[in-house]
Design goal:
alpha+beta, 4-stranded mixed sheet
């Protein structure tokens, strides 16, 4: 298998952490692509018509894309239990929350980098950050008991999301007033899978 990859993408990091956690790194060739919303990599488009990463190219089936699809496939392939039946709906909702933080945080970067300066909307940027802030508050008030339990895909998605906030939005100081969530992340970030997948670029 080949994973179309960019070291800066939080969605790619989520898949990479899953590969490490499930012991499948040796089964996948990492293929770096350089892509933007306005200039997608041709190799990526041939694999994923949406032009988005990550994309997992398989020998015996169509390319999988969207990190949730890929992670679910990898978990099933390894029978790793990252989507436990006993709390599947909580896990999926927590994963969706982490993904939504990533999406809003990435869209802020896109707005700042790919729009002409005179067309950048600060109201739109702040609206995206408001989504991030509300989701972080929900993690701290509704989800800490889950996060403190056995690692599942919800943990991985939230870990990748918080790592991206540190990487691209450090000045926003997401930890302020969120001591319990900050403490959880400080510990989770020390997992070998997280250390091995630090974003760059």
């Amino acid at each position: 298998m080949q994973l179309l990859h960019s070291a800066a993408s939080p969605f790619v990091r989520k898949v990479m952490v899953t590969l490490h956690e499930t012991g499948q790194m040796d089964d996948v060739e990492i293929v770096n692509v350089s892509t933007t919303p306005v200039a997608p990599d041709p190799a990526l488009i041939s694999a994923n018509p949406l032009g988005k990463i990550p994309a997992l190219m398989r020998d015996n089936g169509p390319t999988l894309y969207d990190s949730r699809v890929i992670c679910r496939f990898l978990d099933d392939r390894a029978q790793a239990g990252l989507y436990p039946d006993s709390r599947i709906w909580d896990t999926l909702t927590l994963e969706a929350t982490g993904d939504a933080i990533m999406e809003a945080a990435v869209l802020i970067i896109y707005e700042e980098r790919f729009r002409p300066a005179e067309k950048v909307s600060m109201d739109w940027i702040e609206g995206q950050w408001a989504k991030v802030s509300r989701a972080l508050d929900a993690l701290g008030t509704r989800w800490m008991s889950h996060l403190q339990g056995r690692t599942d895909m919800g943990h991985i998605a939230v870990g990748a999301a918080l790592g991206y906030l540190d990487f691209r939005h450090e000045a926003r100081s997401w930890r302020t007033g969120r001591d319990e969530l900050s403490g959880w992340y400080a510990e989770f970030a020390q997992r070998p899978s997280m250390v091995a997948t630090m974003p760059s670029g």
